[in-house]
Amino acid sequence: MFFSNPCILLVIFQTTLTEVQFGPMKLFKDPLQVLLVFAKEDSQSNGFCWACEKANFRCSMARTPESALECFLEKHHDLVIIDHRHSRHFDAEALCRSIRAVNSSENTVIVAVVKRYLTLIDPCCSVLPSYPQRYVENGNMMACYNELLQLEHGEVRAQFKLRAGNAIFTAIEQSQEAIEITSEDQVIQYVNPAYESIMGYQQGELIGKEIIEVPKSEKNKPDLLETINSCIRKGKEWQGIYYAKKKNGDSIQQNVKITPVIGQGGKHKDRRKGSLDVRSTTSRGSDGSSQRRHSSMARIHSMTIEAPITKVINIINAAQESSPMPVAEALDRVLEILRTTELYSPQLGTKDEDPHTNDLVGGLMTDGLRRLSGNEYIFSTKQPHHIPSHLTTPLSLNDIPPRIAQTMENEDSWDFDIFNLEAATIKRPLTYLGMKIFSRFGVCEFLNCPEATLRSWLQVIEANYHSSNSYHNSSHAADVLHATAYFLCKERVKQSLDPIDEVAALIAATVHDVDHPGRTNSFLCNAGSELAILYNDTAVLESHHAALAFQITTRDDKCNIFKNIERNEYRTLRQAIIDMVLATEMTKHFEHVNKFVNSINKPLAALEENGESVKGILTSPENRILVKRMLIKCADISNPCRPQELCIEWAGRISEEYFAQTDEEKRQGLPVVMPVFDRNTCSIPKSQISFIDYFITDMFDAWDAFADLPNLMQHLDNNFKYWKGLDERKLHSLRPPPE
Asked: Does residue 589 have an active-site annotation?
């Protein structure tokens, strides 16, 4: 309720439970009113119900769009959460539009609950045009509780303050004193009715016009306007006598106070006729407050600590100031994208209905679906395996049995058959191939390490791979080591890397999956495994592989290949190995690929086109890191680029491992991370097509442009056509049936 007279303006709010400070105002708010719209009860709806109760919010549940709209019309909820996961139950988009059509919903926050994969296939949420907010499905009660608290203290409270802002504007409207609000560039944004009455103008004649377009009285001193502007630019108030010109041409003397207002939206001037100091905010995009914080920081710390992305945002902000409105609005959208954390997550476009792609993305690029299932699957951090007694006698490279040596004769060729070596060595290919490749690259000489120590190290690393895994075993490690060695021999790669980089790459490839349990990170996180707890659900397996590799290596002098190198060299080598192993984690796949393309491939192409030297691009420390990451990533998932028979064998092995995980998830009552990998229904050709489309093609196109790998790209093309042919025949198997 508002009371107004020329002396006092009073805005009264009903005193309730929650106290909110808004500038000089102290507001009081009722408990949050929440409407949950879920067609059926499940862990997600139960999680939000429990969270509302814990937070002392008032909660209503609706099962249909009709009952939801009726309930909203009755209570006008602050927050509406709509289940957007199951389109067959009701049209969530239509319900959102219906609620928005109600006048009282202007300050209501509406949130869509979406499937996990949606955040990966469409980070900008373009598939949900009606929803500014979304929540990725997660039935964990504490996750729901935290989400509600964040919404209450974020969007809901902001809407509450906007309502208070409307009250302030209502008070200004009733004021008997003339008030004019302008932007920083002196464009009139608002005048109140008292201003219209005193000056004789209508709002429509002033809004959007610059102050200089409005006639001024000749009675003002010539330099008065510059004095005012200079004062405002310094962030100071100006007060004095000002002669304004009314619409009818008469001059009027006014005691004017002009106050610069700096808020999150930018710096603006508020012209006020009279003695009261009124402050205002606006939605303009330049961040004046951040500039003020930065200058304060500079006084504390003389170093430049501004991040590159911050510099980019500041440059765009500056460009907006002098840009026409369409350009400024486009730059606003650019800034909105730049401020998100998922800069490198791609938009799938037409693939959002492909369950194979969605499951691969969800299974490989997330840390699992957390829930309170009570079915914690304990994956213990076991003690490392020791070398079996019959393998402890070190052999030199010359002592390798002829039959095994014969299978490795073409190990420097891309078409090398790792499965022949696996059979010849009775599933111990890593030790033998490692001895030959490490010898070829002079690793023992670089590390000042005896060949016997290297042999012992390879044996103990191989002993810590699980031969029971169909895919993530020492044969996979040997295959990745082979691919790494092959890439290191490419001319462009050799120009980029130093000997220490080559040694780090070979060691990282050897250990990159050591002690892999045959289950994905998502599985370990969902199961509440000890490893997931140890590494906080972040890069769980990759962190374990790197840590265990150094634990195995340094605990025993007999296999410590780092024993004789200088401390600083060891630290550099260790850092490079860890970075490469962590790069094999798939959640940052697109970040690594995009950085490689934008930091290396594009600048290289520009320099080569102009005939300039590319050495600076190739050898900078930052780009050497990107090359090593890309190298091991391509080596790790190069199966689709192998000769067709090898590609088919690897596809069968990884599918079997995913089938086993799905079986385990069902037995343990855990969330099924990749439902399409059900051994009774899965189409292996479809899964391979999705994997190649989503992860492989762009990455190997970029790697081929850098390292020149036409044979790999030909294999990739042949293998893709092979899987496409099987899929077109609606076959689900690895191979077509016998003729």
From this structure: no
What does the pLDDT look like over 553-585, one tens digit per residue?
Answer: 999 999 999 999 999 999 999 999 999 999 999
Distance CA 259, CA 271 (A): 7
Domain 353-728 has CATH 1.10.1300.10: yes
CATH 3.40.50.2300 domain position(s) in the chain? 2-172
Task: Give long-range contacts, CB 8 A cutoff, 24+ apart: 645-648.
Answer: 646/417, 646/418, 646/419, 647/715, 647/719, 647/722, 648/722, 648/734, 648/735
**Beta strand pairing call for 58-62 and 33-37:** parallel
Cα–Cα distance for residue pair 394/507, rounded to 1 Å: 19
| Every domain range in the chain assigned CATH 3.30.450.20 | 176-273
Residue 688, annotated ligand binder? yes
Of 182 and 601, the one with more pLDDT:
601
Give, in words, the CATH class of 176-273. alpha beta
The reported pTM is: 0.58
Q: How confident is the model at residue 106 (pLDDT cuts 50, 70, 90)?
A: confident
HSE on the CB side for 55, CA within 13 Å?
Answer: 28
Q: Is 354 annotated as a binding residue?
A: no
Judge whether residue 5 has pLDDT over 50. Answer: no
Cα gap 185→729, rounded to integer Å:
66
Residue 701 marked in a binding site = no
The CATH class of 2-172 is alpha beta
C-alpha dihedral, 712 to 713 to 719 to 723, nearest 10°: 140
| CA–CA–CA angle 718, 471, 407 (5° rounding) | 70
Distance of CA 505 to the CA centre of its chain: 27
Catalytic residue among 84, 268, 356, 472: 472
